[in-house]
Amino acid sequence: MVNLTVADLLFLVTLPLWVIYYYNRGDWLLPKFLCNLAGCFFFINTYCSVAFLGVITFNRFQAVTRPIKTAQATTRKRGIYLSLVIWVAIVAAASYFLVLDSTNTVRGRPGPGNVTRCFEHYEQGSMPVLIIHIFIVLSFFVVFLVILLCNLVIIRTLLAQPVQQPRNAAVRRRALWMVCAVLAVFVICFVPHHLVQLPWTLAELGYRSGRFHQAINDAHQVTLCLLSANCVLDPVIYCFLTKKFRRHLTERLYSMRSGRKCSRATTDTSPGTEVVVPLHPVLCGSLKN
């Protein structure tokens, strides 16, 4: 879960850059290296999220189908090694974006001036670019297929198990919600983009043109927004996956609510009048200390 959080934070760091870019109607007015950095972090966020959600799903699949063996084999050190391998592989692949010619100038619409695009164009007929995108898209759908099959087996196994205690029913319900949350993130955020990515790449490389190019470009922009939404939906997975996160969130909400009650209580006193206002037992205990 820490790895997913770090991946989301990398995208959030560059979010102001994308806001400025689209606020200026797709005109990159910032230094060129910031476009490279934003593209690099976007790639890291996307595929680290895919990889770690895949690892989480496969770990849950093993825990449901082979609980004893999984409990014996799962260690903290093994998880750290696997996380390092994923980070090194994806960061190494994303480093290409730091040296890539990331911007291009096109005629503005409307008006005679030119605008600078950020990662919205490729060199015409570039075969290496096409091969890279084919590899990325195929790799994603292999991971998605594994996640889909694992989650279907998890759902079938959980529904087939008899529930004898209310506590077990709550655990099963939470596990089913977690499975649905992971699938929702993939179906809503990642799948539409990767369905459009290859046709868009072919259009940008000049293999398709005309109305198709404009239509696929518009669809590509929409799927990029959906892809960015995974940072919003990932906290839903945190909520279903970890008791510590839910407990921390509950404590923070309770603390905020108690703080507002205390603030209202202090404003009820008026000059020259002594008013006794009852405080919450937790606050009374902290005041005594």
UniProtKB/TrEMBL annotation:
It is a multi-pass membrane protein. The keyword Disulfide bond applies. Keywords: Cell membrane, Chemotaxis, Disulfide bond, G-protein coupled receptor, Glycoprotein, Membrane, Receptor, Transducer, Transmembrane, Transmembrane helix. The keyword GTP-binding does not apply. Signal peptide: none annotated. It comes from the Eukaryota. Residues 1-238 form the G-protein coupled receptors family 1 profile domain. GO terms for biological process: chemotaxis. One of its GO terms (molecular function) is G protein-coupled purinergic nucleotide receptor activity. It is found in: Cell membrane. GO terms for cellular component: plasma membrane. The chain crosses the membrane at residues 7-24, 36-58, 79-99, 130-154, 175-195, 219-241. Belongs to the G-protein coupled receptor 1 family. Interacts with ARRB1. Receptor for platelet activating factor, a chemotactic phospholipid mediator that possesses potent inflammatory, smooth-muscle contractile and hypotensive activity. Seems to mediate its action via a G protein that activates a phosphatidylinositol-calcium second messenger system. This is Platelet-activating factor receptor. It comes from Tupaia chinensis (Chinese tree shrew).
